[in-house]
Specification:
By secondary structure, the protein is of the alpha/beta class. It is built from two helices and three strands.
């Protein structure tokens, strides 16, 4: 059985550490949480995107998904605005 995990459970952990953790534990996949504290986010410059590619290069396709979510909205007093 192959295992993968998401960096959603690793807030504040940088990409290099997440990749190292996944490879150290023999994971076959890694879902990246898009957030500035991980170094992977929608506002990356071309240089930043190149750095991400460089970090995951040679992992054999370790990154299998990218996770992005919108902040919640208050509806009838529920949630946050």
């Amino acid at each position: 059985m192959k295992f993968a995990f998401s960096t959603l459970g690793m807030p504040g952990t940088g990409l290099a550490e997440a990749v190292a953790t996944a490879t150290r534990h023999g994971c076959a996949g890694l879902e990246l949480r898009l957030h500035p504290d991980t170094g992977v986010h929608a506002g990356l410059t071309a240089t930043g995107r190149a750095a991400v590619r460089s970090t995951v290069a040679g992992t054999g396709g370790l990154v299998i998904a990218v996770l992005a979510h919108a902040p919640g909205a208050a509806v009838d007093g529920w949630g946050t605005a």
